[in-house]
Design brief:
Helix content is 57%, strand content 0%. It has 120 residues and is an all-alpha fold. Helix 1 packs antiparallel against helix 2, helix 3 crosses helix 6 and helix 4 packs antiparallel against helix 6. The protein is globular and about 45 Å long. It binds heme C. The site of heme C (HEC) has 19 residues, from helix 3, helix 4 and helix 5.
């Protein structure tokens, strides 16, 4: 599976989508996102609300730092396609290309988040 994903992720963008759907039934496995390019996009577009570390800066902004890459790609793609709607995120995702989505997902998913349960 890993080798199939690598093959898909190194294919040209247009071919990649077709291959991913044909071979795997989804393109969520594609990990071709460029972390550094994603960082620049996050600085320009996402930082105000999600911070560079992916921690929401206001109560109603989701924490996305350390989130699964596939999940981030799916949510952003759903906002872009109108399957998920939110007054701010629908507009923002609508301005992102599929490469932008892969890159910002690579950035925010590479952040290491730790969790502690309440109590002793
Ligand atoms: C103007 C503020 C704002 C900006 C800028 C912004 N977001 Fe968001 N984002 C939000 C809010 C608010 C939500 C919660 C949406 C909801 O309630 O459904 C959200 C939700 C999300 C989610 C879904 C999280 C989940 O757990 O389902 C993702 C992924 C996301 N944003 C990514 C991004 C990325 C990547 C960028 C930059 C390209 C970005 N956002 C820019 C406000 C923002």
């Amino acid at each position: 599976m890993k080798r199939v994903a690598d093959f898909i992720c190194t294919a040209p963008a247009a071919l990649r989508a077709v291959l991913a759907v044909t071979l795997l039934g989804s393109c969520g496995v594609c990990t071709a996102g460029d972390v550094e390019v994603g960082r620049m996009k996050a600085e320009m577009v996402c930082q105000t609300c999600h911070g560079m570390n992916g921690r929401g800066t206001q109560a109603m902004v989701a924490n996305i730092g350390g989130q699964q890459e596939e999940y981030l790609v799916k949510q952003l793609t759903d906002f872009k396609a109108g399957r998920r709607q939110h007054p701010q995120m629908s507009i923002i995702a609508g301005m992102l290309s599929s490469d932008d989505i892969a890159n910002v997902a690579a950035w925010y998913s590479r952040i290491v988040a730790t969790f502690e349960v309440p109590g002793d």
